[in-house]
Write a structure and sequence with these properties.
Layout (H helix, E strand, L loop, with lengths): L14 H11 L10 H8 L3 H13 L3 E2 L8 E2 L1 H13 L1 H17 L2 E8 L2 E8 L14 E2 L5 H9 L2 H10 L8 H18 L2 E2 L11 E7 L8 E7 L6 H23 L4 H5 L1
Antiparallel strand pairs: 1-2, 3-4, 3-8, 4-5, 6-7, 7-8
Helix pairs in contact: 2-3, 5-9, 6-8
Length: 270
């Protein structure tokens, strides 16, 4: 659902453009197309508004459907835009083999997540070869509160970005400023002492996954992303998460930092 942002009060903020982008962000990799009603449900926009936006986006090639009343799917213009974005962010291609190797070595799902206003957006996934479980996928959004990735992101943010993010996500799963500050401190301490963050299971937003996370801040981005790896508890005990998978995640992100020739994430924040 589209969440209000403090930037929306700025006279320069293009509300119609923001609504159109929220339509594009509604799509997930596993979708077999979406109708206007489903898009309206996911974005929180009125169906009449969605109808106008999907018509416009289809006219411009960002959405497509094969015939009248068919479901909308991402179009060729959106594919081209995604390819340009991936090519322009230098670390994504370098991270691919590293994170795939991590997934294969640990039997976990490896993820890259970015901030999407009041949520974390999964932007890349690497599944262990030979395992068919879908688990989470590109396009899914996770809360900041109750996830190792969310807490790691809060720890890596500048103070200004932290305050803006918490204001946007206020009350999402009970998140308050005090809770966010405590999660930020706990994650920061873990990142400092062992290089990765694990959220206590009693804080999990979902009980069916154990995960470790570590932030990364490329020089060509204005804010950090988070790398994470996890699996279902029966496949990934907390002991194995803390003593095997977490350290391997730390090593993987450090390798990426070395390849990029840049210092560690928390060094940049400090």
């Amino acid at each position: 659902m589209m969440t209000a942002s403090p930037d929306a009060t700025d006279r320069r903020f293009a509300t119609t453009l923001a609504k159109g982008l929220s339509v594009l962000r509604a799509f997930r990799a596993s979708d077999d197309g979406l109708g206007n009603a489903e898009i309206a449900e996911r974005t929180g926009l009125p169906k009449s508004t969605v109808s106008r936006l999907t018509f416009t986006l289809r006219s411009l090639g960002y959405l497509t459907h094969a015939r009248r009343n068919d479901r909308y799917r991402p179009g060729p213009a959106l594919l081209a835009l995604g390819n340009v974005a991936q090519a322009s962010i230098s670390f994504v291609e370098l991270a691919g083999p590293i994170m795939q190797q991590l997934a294969d070595d640990t039997g976990t799902l490896s993820l890259m997540l970015a901030r999407d206003n009041a949520k974390l957006l999964i932007v890349r996934t690497w599944r262990p070869r030979g395992m068919s479980s879908l688990w989470l996928e590109t396009g899914h959004r996770l809360p900041f509160h109750g996830t190792s990735s969310g807490h790691a992101m809060l720890a890596a943010m500048t103070e200004e970005l932290f305050e803006t993010t918490v204001a946007n996500a206020q009350e999402d799963r009970g998140l308050t400023l005090d809770i966010a500050k405590q999660a930020r401190r706990n994650a920061y301490d873990q990142l400092r002492t062992r290089g990765f963050n694990i959220t206590s299971p009693d804080q999990y937003f979902a009980s069916n996954i154990h995960a470790a996370s570590k932030p990364f801040h490329a020089r060509d981005l204005t804010e950090p992303v988070v790398f994470s790896c996890g699996a279902m508890p029966q496949d990934l005990t907390l002991d194995r998460l803390a003593n095997e998978v977490g350290p391997k995640l730390n090593d993987a992100v450090q390798e990426l930092e070395r390849m990029m020739g840049q210092p560690a994430m928390l060094t940049l924040r400090d």
